[in-house]
Amino acid sequence: MHRRWQSGLVVALLVATGPLAGACTVFFAFDGKVAMAGDNEDWADPNTQMWFVPPTKDHYGIVYFGFGKGEYPKGGIARRKLQIPGGDITRINPQDLYGLPQAGMNDKGLFFGGAATEPVKAPRRPGKKRYDGQLEDRILRNCATVEEALKLIEPYEFNLVQGHWLFADKTGDSFIIEAGDVILRKKGKYQVITNFLQSRVEPNRRTCPRYKLVTETLSDEKALSADLVRSLLKATAMKSTQYSTVFNLSRGEVSIYRRGDFHRVAKVNLKAELRKGERAVKIGSLFER
Known about the structure:
42% of the residues are buried. The longest helix has 13 residues, at 3-15. It is built from six helices and 16 strands. It is of the alpha+beta class. The protein has helices at residues 3-15, 135-142, 146-153, 209-220, 226-236, 270-274, and strands spanning 25-30, 35-42, 48-53, 62-67, 103-106, 111-119, 129-130, 156-157, 162-168, 174-178, 182-185, 190-193, 241-248, 253-258, 261-269, 279-282. It has one domain: Penicillin V Acylase, Chain A. Strand 13 and strand 14 form a beta hairpin. Helix 1 (3-15) packs antiparallel against helix 4 and helix 2 packs across helix 3 (146-153). The strands form three sheets. The chain has an eight-stranded antiparallel beta sheet. It has a six-stranded antiparallel beta sheet with strand order 12-1-2-13-14-15. The protein has a two-stranded parallel sheet with strand order 7-8.
């Protein structure tokens, strides 16, 4: 283990005692052979679930992760608009998040995950249309690659007023879309999001310990593995981390960890699970005896 990694781990463990309830750490990396993503979902509500949207002749199959009590949202995703009281994400009624995916992957290896940031007041964009629904869901249903996703969303406003999404595919491509419809393409072999808008913070002023730990480690490592992703999730987990997921986009597999316990894992093969039909599963039930 590198000294740099050890130092970062200590910082991350210290930060994990902090009060931020909606933190979240999401990252994607590609080493030329394997494409993998990691997601720590941090929130106050322990009711978490995953659900499956089987493929049809018109759309791809998907596994989604988010909040809920094991209740399948009608049509595969909740259609309500999320209201953020006073621009403060910590004041959201927990049940308002049920059925709204926080991360997911389709059966073509396209991934997305999101994290909270400060709110943004963005003016309407001339020539852009509003989309009546969740664009991230439309992307995963209809796109196999990042390039297809960018082409799909080009005519629309993404309607983000707070936070950002990271999209990535198994070819190694990725992009971040921020509140205010700012798009950041991947320039190296990885992209990382935590809780600040990178378009508004110069690289030398990015002080988030979780962001620094993940970016420094991925910069140093040449080979990508599920164990490396798991280790980064463990190092950046907080008291509010409800579940952690390792996505292997190349193989269509997900490893799931719960509440900071990285010794017990539940594994999902997406294509095999999609054959079982639509359903929602409590994440907690995956770890019952």
